Amino acid sequence: MQIVNVENLQKNYTVYQRKGLFREKRIIRALQNISFTVNRGEFLGYIGPNGAGKSTTIKILTGIMTPDGGSAIVDGMVPYRERKLYVRNIGVVFGQKTQLWWDLPVRDTYSLLKAIYGVPESRFKEQIGYLSGHLELGEIMDRPVRQLSLGQRMRAELAAALVHDPELLFLDEPTIGLDIVSKHRVLQFLRELHSRGKTIFLTTHDLKDIEALCQEILIINHGSLVYKGTLEGLKGMVKLPRVLRIQLREGAFSLDGRCTGFIERYAARYDSKTGTIDVELSDTARPANVAREFMQVMEIEDFRITDPSIEDVVRVIYRK
Amino acid sequence: MRSVIALFMASLKAQYEYRLNFWLDTLINGANLFSDFLLMAFLMLSFKEIGGWSFGEIAIIYSIVEMGWGIFRFFGEGLHRFEELMVTGRFDLLLIRPMNTVKQLLLERIDFRRLGVVVEALAVAVFGFTASRIDFGDMWLAYISLVFFSTVMTFEINIILAAIAFWTVRNSDIIVLAFYSTRTAAMYPAHIYGPVLKNVLTFIVPLASVAYFPVGYLTGRITSIIALISPVLGVTALLPVTVLIWKLGLKHYASTGT
User: Fold this and answer.
1) Do B92 and A64 make contact, defined as CB atoms within 8 angstroms?
2) Under an 8 A CB cutoff, do A103 and B14 touch?
3) Between chains, do B98 and A87 touch, taking CB under 8 Å as contact?
4) Domain limits at A169?
5) In the predicted model, is pLDDT for residue A99 greater than 70?
6) pLDDT tier for residue B228 given thresholds of 50, 70 and 90
7) B96 vs A66: CB contact, 8 Å cut-off?
8) Distance in Å, alpha carbon of B187 to nearest chain A alpha carbon
9) Confidence (pLDDT) at B257
10) Which chain B residues are closer than 8 Å to A117 by Cβ?
11) Which residue of A has its CA nearest to B5?
12) Does the pLDDT value for residue B43 go beyond 80?
């Protein structure tokens, strides 16, 4: 069942550039006819290079901004028309902006949000217990927000977006700047939320997060939708070769003419500092054969075959 | 209503986090403004009167304007610093909550230090009633009503000025020009000014309508009954303008996101 339905969404920004004495008006097309749907309970990763239109999309879907064309219907409502009613059922985290009360203990922010959203006392207690357990908020509950580390703050931030237990979550870079441990905790919690049936819209630059969590991804570039589907499907769409990496034996890094000719024939890349050779394997090539041929002419220590990473795939898409 | 009380208490608690700073600021705030009044007192002592108004009478219009401002700043700190929200983009965070944006702004940062201003304005009023022939026993209701209208008008003007930041992002200079200068001017009898400033104070930033005109009528200096009802006229006329400009501002923000 669909929860988000976006059709032909368009958004333009007008910017003025000074040109001599006059200002020149320029239209930036931030979103050009974007359409997609998100199913209830989906964990969607939303990626795209800086300036691709991600924030614009999130702002429209959270009711902050009105589009210039097209429509967005979320949870049966038009976010930017019925803002006050609509925001009751969404939770939003902007990784770059805090929504916690800076000078107050973390606990107080939750009480305030409870009052703003009108959460009944019993539900509130239960929810805070749940959040505190999974996000390990116990030790920071009574500390003023300004004293928290970034990792602690981000956990508190996530909990703040969930005080009213919304069905739909928009997370805009919730792991930005976090260390490995904090990040792991946050991701773990997102997985838990997803298992409870929440629909999650996650924007991030960290593709490892996406790989770890999302079943579906949405890629946007230059204001247009590039891809919507599974990660596996994406790898199938952009065919990148596997790479055979050959490590030469220590002391055998200097290659003679025969060897370099050989490397050229395979269009391989040789790094004389580390003594590694990367050979791209075509679909028909048999790795064992290639390796054997190299072994006949060079002194080899180790072999490894790597599949193209999701980063490589996405980099190719961003460049288009 | 519960959310309003919760936000109010949170503001109080947040300021109490910096206790010493809080008390010092309150003191300095009051003293600072009192020095404005002393300056006027000094002038009055040498001139005895300004435009036919006695020192005590001027103190009363001064206190009406000042108290309106003090009460506004008590609630209006978030509104006063609205450009910060525009510059940092934090206004977005108000939009993702199920509450009116103006209400959130007014409660975002209740500034208890501004009570110093209110106390100062009260002191000036006490002085005004003692020094002038206006009797507080006859005038207390009128005085309280005028403070009320002065407060409402200060809110209206400052909401309009804050809304300008929806288009310009920065608005602190506009606030100084359009509000602070007119506020100071409105603390003196408006007929001493040239026609331009007098008209500005009557029709554009109509702060004269909540202090000078009605007090002038009550002291028998102005005879037209319009002077008496001018606070109601001024506040009522500004209301739709305020609502409209704020709504247009919100709309502009939603379409540009600046």
Assistant:
1) yes
2) yes
3) yes
4) 2-99+161-237
5) yes
6) very high
7) no
8) 37
9) 67
10) 98
11) A115
12) no
| ipTM for the assembly | 0.83
pLDDT at B4 over 80: yes
Residue B159 pLDDT more than 90? Answer: yes
The backbone region for A284, taken as left when phi is positive above 0, alpha when psi lies in -120 to 50, beta otherwise, is: alpha
Q: Residue A104: inside a domain, yes or no?
A: no
Closest of A62, A68, A72 to residue B256, by C-alpha: A68
Domain count, chain A: 2
Whether residues A202 and A267 share a domain: the answer is no
DSSP state of B178: I
B18's tokens: 């910096």
Beta bridge partners of A90: A168
Pick from B13, B17, B93: CB nearest A97: B93
Q: How far apart are CA B192 and CA A223, in angstroms?
A: 60
Whether residue A221 contacts residue A320, with contact meaning beta carbons closer than 8 Å, is answered with: yes
- On whether both A31 and A167 belong to a single domain, the answer is yes
Examine the fold and report which residue of A237, A269, A303 is the final residue of a domain before the chain moves on.
Answer: A237
Distance from CA of A182 to the nearest CA of B (A): 24
CATH of the domain at A31: 3.40.50.300
- The answer to whether position A121 is within a domain reads no
How confident is the model over A52-66, as a mean pLDDT?
92
CA distance B74 to chain A (A): 18
Residues A246 and A201 in one domain: no
- In contact, B17 and A144? CB cutoff 8 Å: yes
pLDDT at A287 over 80: yes
Confidence at A300, pLDDT banded by 50, 70, 90:
confident
Q: Are A179 and A288 found together in one domain?
A: no
Domain boundary among A237, A265, A287: A237
Element (H, E) at B248: helix B225-256
Contact state of A97 with B90 under an 8 Å Cβ cutoff: yes
- pLDDT score recorded for residue A220: 93
Query: Looking at CA atoms only, how far is residue B255 from chain A in angstroms?
Result: 5
- Alpha-carbon distance of B83 to A165, in angstroms, equals 32
Chosen from B8, B96, B252 to mutate, greatest number of chain A CBs within 10 A: B96
Question: pLDDT per residue over A103-160, tens digit each?
Answer: 899 999 999 999 999 999 999 999 999 999 999 999 999 999 999 999 999 999 999 9
CATH of the domain at A292: 3.30.70
CA of B110 vs chain A CAs: smallest distance (Å): 13
Q: What is the mean pLDDT of residues B154-171?
A: 93
Question: Which chain B residue has the Cα nearest residue A12?
Answer: B256
Beta carbons of A63 and B95 less than 8 Å apart: yes
Pairing of strands A90-94, A168-172: parallel
Residue type, A287: P
Contacts of A97 in chain B (CB under 8 A): 88-90, 92-93
- Percent of chain A exceeding pLDDT 70 equals 100
**Nearest neighbour of B98 by CB, restricted to A64, A88, A102:** A88
B145 token code pair = 């009503």
List pLDDT tens digits, range A22-36. 788 888 888 999 999
- Tokens in use for A298? 């060079």
Option in B10, B95, B96 nearest A101 (CB): B10
Separation between Cα atoms, residue B170 and residue B84, nearest integer Å: 8
Interface check A66 vs B, CB under 8 A: yes
Of A164-168, A271-275, B92-96, B164-168, which gets the smallest average pLDDT?
A: A271-275
Tell me the whole-structure pTM to 2 decimals: 0.85
Hey, are the CB atoms on B256 and A13 less than 8 Å from each other? yes
pLDDT beyond 80 at A257: no
